[in-house]
Design brief:
The structure is a homodimer of 518-residue chains.
Chain A: E1 31-33, E2 38-40, E3 50-51, H1 54-60, E4 68-71, H2 81-92, E5 98-102, E6 104-105, H3 111-117, E7 121-126, E8 128-129, H4 131-138, E9 146-148, H5 153-159, E10 167-172, E11 174-175, E12 181-182, H6 197-202, E13 205-210, E14 230-233, H7 254-269, E15 277-281, H8 285-301, E16 305-312, H9 314-321, E17 325-333, H10 336-341, E18 348-350, H11 353-357, E19 371-374, E20 378-380, E21 385-386, H12 402-408, E22 411-415, E23 419-420, E24 423-424, E25 426-427, E26 442-445, E27 448-451, H13 456-464, H14 472-483, E28 491-500, E29 506-513
Parallel strand pairs in A: 3-14, 4-5, 4-10, 5-7, 6-8, 7-9, 9-28, 10-13, 13-14, 15-16, 15-19, 16-17, 17-18, 19-22, 20-25, 22-26
Antiparallel strand pairs in A: 11-12, 20-21, 23-24, 26-27, 28-29
Keywords (chains A, B): Cytoplasm, Lyase, Transferase
Catalytic activity (chains A, B): citrate = oxaloacetate + acetate; citrate + acetyl-CoA = (3S)-citryl-CoA + acetate
EC number (chains A, B): 2.8.3.10, 4.1.3.6
């Protein structure tokens, strides 16, 4: 069955009420009965929830074959906890048929790739899939298709009961002995724990893992003790220095800076750019750099941002410190500057993934967003964006908040160079649709700007401001002229991943690429 | 069937898995599958959730015959919102067969008594029942027995699905247009909104009612916009000046002060009185006065309180400002001093009823409490306490956090005069059991102190400290000697209220008193 982005979705994937993507507002106003955890009552006075080891916590929480465990990735490439836990479950306890429910998967969790190859881990539900894990899944080694969701789609799926978490293992920078936990005050701080909070509410069992035990009560906390069964203390939960990876760098590439400047120009040309506007950037080089160009326009026109949303970097914190941003609503921190800033500034707030982007609650912040600036691995002439698979068809990306903010915002701007190496970024048809074209408004490249024809209002705004723009077809032609028409990928029949829209409908599938070799 | 406090519970009340009270730890460790709301998805960008009227909000949220609505009573005797809403549902919309789920009911909601008499409101689930509402229920005018629960029992019942709230109407001192709401910053402030938070998570629909609309985002908030369907602005949500009623006064009665001093002596004689102890008082005059005597012992021994729990008054805020209390964990504020203090002191925190006392989560704060000082309408020689019915058998009280803190704390002290008017407070058998005797450790009266024989350790502590004590039988004899043996109440067969233990088992029933006249 074809969906609204023209992808064929096999009937076998449309079980248990699953539907195909039918446009960005298809689910609006429909009711959902939320799922809920099966929780252990604590009636007696308690002395402590401390366990001697992660294994003891696993046993107390009834770890078993066929279970689903979750973890968050606020520590990004510096996360130690997911691997520790996977090792205990698989190697120490010998469990099998395990499903992983992660906010992302990358090099820090590489051991999971091995367990997938060994058939111990048979299911993966995640936003990002990068590195070795992406390769083994792309090679067809996972027993069932990986389910890839956006940051808003994840809490939606948890609340819908499509992911029921048996045990959530949540790395926390500090915790007291009862599990009041947060991302600051420890020896390895991640700042916001917005990726972890929702799991603590919906998992049957929650284990807090920390390297810095503090006095009770550790308040205000991100994770409340009422949701925590066990607390484990380990030497190090992660390497906070690795949180800031190259994705979060501020670019000094002149081509990226030029694109960033053009993005700011586009923003300033729209009617949404007025006092009290709201804004989010992704972590790509040119996206982050938009902050610095936007500042000039804000000062010139004497306007302030009401809130900056999502993943947070020092750049936006500095804008707040200058008085240009009223509130930062922070789901994760990309660098030490942001980690040191959250909770220090009275209006730099932690929010969780449901507040951020869940399209099945009563109004996530993305639904109030004016502008979002996002990157892309590919974008096609229907404005569909791929941030999941490389041009070789291998899983190596993450939708993250991309589809959520694109759908919710009034003006979604994609910024990307026209080509990367020998690959066209703008193309006839993206390998994988992560964000549907009906959510994307403007494309800014190093070879020109294109506006989605659905947004004639924005076209008029750009014309009025004297900002030149072309059709996306012209940009694609230019890209093909520069690097050639991309070769068609050759796929096996096997579906190795399902890409869900933020509302739970099926947006696309990823098949196994052939011939595929490491 | 007799329960563990020797009360006969009719079989007809033991449906749907209901059990009789079987001791304070009976439910410990048992699993519960939590209930959850049926929630309306908001996928589209939103402009506002403001409604023109409460009626419009009711209609948008599908108000219907047979529905259950809830509200909180942080404004105590100054609450306007519950009555406003009840009038809209019953008088404007003409709905019938309505159930009320309240954190308490008193004079501020008197209109509900009329609707009970008229048969429009057919069910009541509450903690407190005072004033006219208590009288009409006691007169048998409610169609089904009222269900009376403690503050911890309420969130437990909601999570168990025993109370499913169709619409929660939550008074908030401030809100933005999307429903981020809190109890400070407005023209009528209640401080903590700890009674409201849990409802916002579990109700199918949530309506925030405020008299002070503020800019978006109103953060940090007590109620999150993701749980809110509608926002209504009214002239006044309440009269904050009426929050501090006589229950919250600081006594100057010498007899009460003497009892308070003796309570402090008992506390200081136990091994739990050491640096980092935790403490809660009720709102009765002598209970509140304990704070001032405790201060002396704390200073003398150079010890500090790690946390003060529960309803909060200026007295404990002043102790915190003097550096004697590390944290205040605040479910409701009893006076303006406390309202002005919460959120100003960095360690004066709002907590919700589930964090406070829910015995079905993974560890409420009451389970970590060292001392609680509570009042009583009656206490019997089995140490069972009545805080629900007057000596005439009419509903005129509230369990509140009484049973929760008594059960969770290491040392529960009841402080009460031996007689009130011509009534014995210490008696053979309380009219209604609100807090079972196995949760009560010490009784302090103006005629002496008695220790529960279950607590031989505390008896030894008092002996060691040279604090005289007698048996509770002796206190009862003294009371009867002073005011005579109480007359037996004459009951109809009709059960007008069921008193649930905090764990959901049935502790007692209240029958209709005969002859009964107003």
């Amino acid at each position: 069955m074809k969906n609204a982005v023209n992808r064929d979705i096999l009937d076998e994937l449309l079980k248990n009420g699953k539907e195909v993507y039918q446009g960005k507002y298809y689910m609006d106003g429909k009711y959902v009965k939320k799922d809920s955890p099966k929780s252990k009552r604590q009636v007696k006075p308690q002395e402590t929830k401390l366990c001697q080891s992660i294994r003891e916590a696993c046993e107390r929480c009834g770890a078993h074959d066929g279970m689903t465990f979750s973890f968050h990735t606020e520590f990004r490439d510096g996360d130690y906890v997911a691997s520790m836990v996977a090792k205990v479950l698989v190697e120490e306890m010998g469990l099998k048929d395990i499903t992983v429910a992660a906010t992302s998967l990358g090099n820090a969790q590489e051991v999971i790739a091995t367990y997938i190859e060994e058939g111990k881990i048979i299911g993966v539900q995640t936003s990002g899939v990068r590195g070795k894990i992406g390769e083994v899944i792309s090679a067809g080694k996972l027993a069932s298709p990986a389910i890839i969701r956006s940051h808003g789609g994840r809490p939606r799926a948890v609340e819908a009961g499509e992911v029921h978490i048996d045990i959530a293992f949540l790395a926390a920078s500090t915790s007291d002995i009862f599990g009041n936990a947060k991302g600051v005050g420890g020896k390895n701080n991640c700042g916001s724990m917005g990726f972890a909070v929702h799991d603590s509410h919906y998992a049957d069992h929650t284990v807090v893992i920390t390297d810095t035990l503090v006095g009770f009560p550790n308040l205000p906390s991100s994770i409340s003790a009422i949701d925590v069964d066990c607390v484990c203390v380990v030497d190090n939960i992660g390497d906070a220095a690795k949180i800031s990876t190259k994705e979060a760098r501020m670019t000094d590439n002149p081509r990226e800076l030029m694109m960033a400047e053009n993005v700011a120009k586009v923003i300033a040309a729209t009617p949404y750019f007025k006092d009290g506007f709201s804004f989010q950037t992704g972590v790509g080089g040119p996206s982050l750099a938009v902050n610095r160009f936007l500042e000039k326009y804000m000062v010139d026109r004497n306007i302030r941002m009401s809130f900056a949303l999502g993943g947070t970097s020092s750049a936006i914190c500095e804008l707040q410190d200058k008085g240009l941003v009223d509130h930062i609503l922070d789901t994760q921190d990309f660098d030490q500057g942001a980690i040191n800033h959250i909770f220090k500034h009275p209006n730099h707030h932690e929010i969780d993934l449901s507040e951020y982007a869940n399209p099945a609650n009563k109004g996530a912040y993305v639904n109030n967003l004016d502008f979002v600036v996002l990157s892309a691995l590919e974008i096609d002439t229907s404005f569909n964006v791929n941030v999941i698979t490389g041009s070789d068809g291998v899983l190596r990306g993450a939708p993250g908040g991309h589809p959520d903010t694109a759908a919710g915002s009034k003006c979604c701007i994609i910024v990307t160079p026209l080509t990367r190496g020998r690959m066209a970024t703008v193309c006839d048809e993206v390998v994988t649709v992560a964000t549907p074209g009906d959510c994307v408004d403007v494309l800014v490249t190093d070879y020109g700007i294109a506006v989605n024809p659905l947004r004639q209002d924005l076209i008029a705004n750009l014309d009025e401001a004297g900002i030149p723009h072309v059709t996306i077809q012209e940009l694609k032609e230019k890209a093909y002229e520069l690097v050639g028409v991309p070769d068609k990928l050759d796929w096996e029949d096997k579906v190795i991943a399902v890409v869900e829209s933020r509302d739970g409908t099926i947006l696309d599938v990823v098949k196994q690429v052939k011939p595929f070799s490491f």
